[in-house]
Amino acid sequence: MATDLSHIDAKNRPTMVDVSAKSETHRVATARAVVALPAAYPVFHAGTDADTAKGPIIATAIIAGTLAAKKTSDLIPFCHPLSIDSCKFRVERLTASSLEIFCTVKTRGPTGVEMEALVGAAIAATTVYDMCKALTHDITIGPIQLIEKSGGKSDFARPSLQHDQ
């Protein structure tokens, strides 16, 4: 069975992509995760981070997301270990009962940082869940999606969700 998937070889076996011949370029990716917190959301006040027994929710989520982005290759089998130059988060209210978490990762290398941005955003969102679950388990995470990427073979930007870095 022929496939265009880069992580499947000619014999239909999983494989890590060989990036040794690719040139190094500046690469940036931004991912977004949405967290809906219907009952827990009142713990956040405009412009401040809610402090809980476990610590400040947003600050803890940013630290967890950064650690996760740095460990992405330990979590996803064929993901290359990368030297991350920058990992930044922006957390905003999306609606009266939801947060929007953006994770932007930068590197210079032969492969992109989409997975690192996605994992960073996902773990930051999951950390918000963990920090708020004492108030309610009625918390929803998603969508988690790539917003934009640049560098390498092709660029991508999701219409109407582009992120100012």
Q: Brief description of this entry?
A:
The protein has about 160 residues and is of the alpha+beta class. The chain has helices at about 55-70, 70-75, 115-130, and strands at about 25-35, 50, 55, 85-95, 100-110, 140-150, 155.
Describe the structure.
- Helix content is 22%, strand content 32%.
- The chain has one domain: Alpha-Beta Plaits (2-Layer Sandwich), CATH 3.30.70.
- It has helices at 57-70, 72-75, 114-132; strands spanning 25-36, 51-52, 55-56, 84-95, 98-109, 140-150, 156-157.
- The protein starts with 24 loop residues before the first strand and ends in an 8-residue tail after the last strand.
- It is elongated, with a radius of gyration of 17 Å.
- It is built from three helices and seven strands, in the order βββααββαββ.
- It has 165 residues and is α+β, with helices and mostly antiparallel strands.
- The strands form two sheets. It has a five-stranded antiparallel sheet with strand order 4-5-1-6-7. It has a two-stranded antiparallel ribbon with strand order 2-3.
Attribute tags:
3 helices; 165 residues; five-stranded antiparallel sheet; Alpha-Beta Plaits
Mean pLDDT, all residues:
87
> Which second-level CATH architecture applies?
2-Layer Sandwich
Helix content: 10-25%
> Can you list the strand order of the major beta sheet?
4-5-1-6-7
User: Into which percentage range does the β-strand content fall?
Assistant: 25-35%
CA-to-CA gap between the ends?
A: 41 Å
H/E element order: EEEHHEEHEE
Number of helices: 3
Q: Multimeric state of these chains?
A: single chain
Mind telling me the C-alpha Rg? 17 Å
CATH level 4 superfamily? Molybdopterin cofactor biosynthesis C (MoaC) domain
**Total of domains:** 1
